Each structure stands twice: as structure tokens, then as C-alpha cells.
Amino acid sequence: MQIVLATHNVHKVSELGAILSAAVEGLELLGYDGPEPVEDGTSYLENALIKARAAFAHTGLPSMADDSGIAVEILGGSPGIFSARWAGGRDNIANRRLLLAQLRDVVEEHRAAAFVCTIALVGPDGEASFTGIWPGRVAFEEQGEHGFGYDPVFIPEGFEVTAAELDPEVKNSMSHRALALEQLATYLNAIAN
Amino acid sequence: MQIVLATHNVHKVSELGAILSAAVEGLELLGYDGPEPVEDGTSYLENALIKARAAFAHTGLPSMADDSGIAVEILGGSPGIFSARWAGGRDNIANRRLLLAQLRDVVEEHRAAAFVCTIALVGPDGEASFTGIWPGRVAFEEQGEHGFGYDPVFIPEGFEVTAAELDPEVKNSMSHRALALEQLATYLNAIAN
After folding, report:
1. Beta bridge partners of A114
2. ipTM entry
3. Number of domains present in the structure of chain A
């Protein structure tokens, strides 16, 4: 089975492709270089659907897309769908610095947060979606060299280190993205049989 | 009756003093130059109480403080209590620019917002609080020269111009702060009789 991953990020295609093809026999994840729609949805799901629908419309092949972010409780769930451009542009360093500055005076007990990932799958047979949530809290400063996005400022529940300090294999076994991919793989295996 | 306004902003003292003394006979609003506590509350009310309690503890006189902000629906109520330092520092221009950049792809129907102001009054006889809400939406660009804070990017319900384009008298008759002050004045007049 071929599935288009609706992103221009070839690194992401090879990373997710390796995970998914290990979990789903005969699956091939394809890249996408067609038009990218404006992500003007009001939720992770809407944005993932917008991207997956655009790729399906352009390629005619089953297409998937993910939308993810960090939801901070005292910010009412923000940055949320605005996580990637929280500081105004697509600059992860600026995004993290801004979040830490906004929460500067917030004590640890009020720094609860969660990483959220929603994957949408759109094909000739319909649409499906899968969401993974990784709870934790926002750190007071950046720590760690692994990972990307908000990993260096996110301390997962049960740990005293950030997601960027975790061994990538540990992270990839429990992250929001891993949980969503796991559900997707289960679904793909079920419909293949 | 003398009430301390728990702010180092003398402009604010004279502005609110004029409004309140017009509404409450014999009221004198005093400035404050004592210690300023860390505003680490998790709501407008908690922050207003923190400031008013600190001023009451320092002066022994009835003290009031306000906390206000802009709550954007699609941001889950953020910037909220973080409005004044949304971009990381206390820079209104940067705060407004950041909010507009974050909402760049958000269509008009999803730009609902409200200005919120909570006033806390703390004295020997106890504590009271008053909240005013001014509904509207976030504009797509700055407009207008009046006002301050988020006024140039906030279009009040029933208008097609920003709060910074309104005649200051119009704004001061209907704003979140005006509504909260009106409740405070009613309360002060009631306890004076």
C-alpha cells in the first residue's frame, strides 16, 4: 500500500516511513511536492485534514498529514495549533524563548503542558484520524540536545529531564507522535486484513 | 475616604482618581511607591489581589489594584494574564505585533476576543472584586492613535473600528475598565451609606 505524507519535509518522510513500514507490512510512504494549503483550521484535526485533503486531491492517492503542538494549561491550551509560529515566524529557538519568557513568573505546579499530535488519513474510502497525547510540564530553561521543536523545554511526566535529554529511542517509544502513529498502524493493519 | 491605588504609574492614579472621585463623593485616590510583589497568580483576580494585598500590608490603608488583558477565543483565553508581557517584555508594540502574527491565518469569524478587567479592593473590613468584560474581535492590522495596550488591534462588538479609533470619551463609557470601575463605585457608595 502506498500513502502520501503531505509534507515537503523529506526528512520527515524518511523518518515516519521507517517507523510505519516496520509496523505495517508492505507499506510505502511517499513524499509530496504539490501545493500546500493555508492551515487556517481551528484545531489540530482541522489542520491535519486540510493538509491531507489537499494532497489526496492533488495525487489521487491515500494521503496522511499530521498536526502537532504543545498545549500549556495556564495558557488555555496555547500555543496549540500556533506552536510552530508562536513567535511570529517558523523559528523554533524564538518559539521556545518566547514561551519561557511568557511563563517566567509561573511556578512549577502551574506549568502543566502536553504534547499533542493528530494524524489525519484521507483516501478514496473516507477519512480517519488518530491523536496521541504526551503529558508533562514546561521547564524553566532549555536543556538537552536531542529532538526538535519544544523538546528542550518540555519535561515529560515521570521524568526530571526534558524530552531533548531523553535517548531518542526512549522518546520515540512514548511520544505523542509515537502514540498517534501506533494507532494509525493498528488501523492500517486492520483494514489490510 | 482614601484608597491607595497599588501602582507606580502616576498617570494611572490621576486618570482613575478623576473617574472615581466624580462617581464617589469624598473619595481620594492615593499613589503608591511601596514594594511591588511578583504577579504569579493564575487569574486576573489572583493578580489583582496580590497587588492590592501588598499595598494594604505596606500602607495600612484600603488598597485597590486592577489586572486586565485581552482574551482571544482561539488562543483559549490567552494572552489573558500574560497580555502585558506577551512578547516576553513589557513592550506594547511588540505584544500587538506578535498577536497579529500569531493570528495571521485566522479568518474573521474565528477572531473573537474580549478585553477583561478585574479590580480587587483590600482593606481592614475584607476583600471585594469587580470584573468588566468588553467583547469584540482581533483586527487584521493596527488602526488608530488613541488608547494604549491592545486598543489598536481590538474591534469592539458593534463597531467596525478599533478601540484606538474610538473617541476616548466613547471608549471610557463602555470599556472593560469602565464597567469594572462602575461596579466599584456602586459598591463604595453603598458601603459609605
Report:
1. A71, A135
2. 0.84
3. 1
